[in-house]
Design brief:
- This protein has helices at 11-22, 44-54, 69-75, 81-90, 133-142, 161-168, 207-217; strands at residues 5-7, 27-29, 36-39, 64-65, 95-100, 124-128, 145-149, 174-176, 188-191, 198-201.
- The protein is of the alpha/beta class and 221 residues long.
- The chain has one domain (5-217): DHBP synthase.
- It has a 10-stranded mixed sheet with strand order 1-8-2-3-7-4-6-5-9-10, sandwiched between helices.
- Strand 9 (188-191) and strand 10 (198-201) form a beta hairpin.
Length: 221
């Protein structure tokens, strides 16, 4: 892989980052929570690089960032009423929603030898639309991205590109340096793939806020 470079997330920097993604390389990007390391979710070799760079356990699937709810709908086999309600209420923002994956979505989010490495075996995926202009601008160029926090597994998440580089180094081809991220807390995760929504992780969006949104909308699965 080429030596890593820090670039400003202007148009030229975003195009450089998109080109690296298309080559199967890793890119670090700012988001509304912490910095993330991104790969093409349809390229199993790129996803394997992401796992290796972080030292991520194989059983932990990588979430996917999307540019808008329409992209999420194209990847999901079905979006429940609860999922749509939560997207309307908290997207773009720090809420990841687990959905059943469409059979033709083509995502390959597990490393070689992982539990869902065979084509067509991936059943669910966590989707999120980030509330960050530079992340959204990159997603407009690349489409969905497999993104997880830009740090070594079990190490503190990075709030600056420099912090990410100190941990991931030349395993990443390009660092988009958008300054410190505005958030400190990871996204909340709600599983909407089954009959009733279930909170998997309480993060930047509180359980009470999630419940209020669902009750207000009268949402059902």
């Amino acid at each position: 892989m080429h030596p890593s470079a820090h670039v400003h997330p202007d148009r030229e920097g975003l195009e450089r980052a998109a080109a690296e993604i298309r080559l199967g390389h890793l890119v670090v990007i700012p988001t509304d929570t912490v910095y993330g390391v991104a790969a093409d979710p349809r390229d199993p070799a790129a996803v394997a690089r992401l796992f290796a760079a972080k030292g991520r356990p194989r059983q932990l699937r990588v979430p996917v960032l999307v540019g808008d709810a329409a992209v999420a709908a194209s990847l999901a086999a079905h979006l429940s009423e609860a999922a749509r309600t939560l997207m309307d209420a908290f997207w773009p923002g720090p809420l990841s929603i687990v959905v059943r994956l469409a059979a033709d979505a083509g995502l390959r989010l597990d490393p070689p030898g992982g539990p869902d490495a065979a084509p067509g075996s991936l059943q669910t995926v966590a989707l999120r639309q980030p509330d960050h202009p530079q992340a959204l601008a990159l997603l407009a160029l690349t489409g969905p991205l497999a993104v997880t926090s830009a740090n070594l597994t079990s190490h503190p998440p990075a709030r600056t590109a420099a912090e990410a580089a100190a941990q991931l180094g030349d395993a990443v081809a390009c660092y988009l340096d958008g300054g410190p991220t505005p958030g400190r807390t990871a996204s909340s995760i709600v599983d909407c793939s089954k009959a009733a929504p279930r909170l998997l992780r309480e993060g930047a969006v509180s359980l009470s806020d999630l419940e209020r949104a669902l009750v207000r909308a009268g949402a059902r699965a």
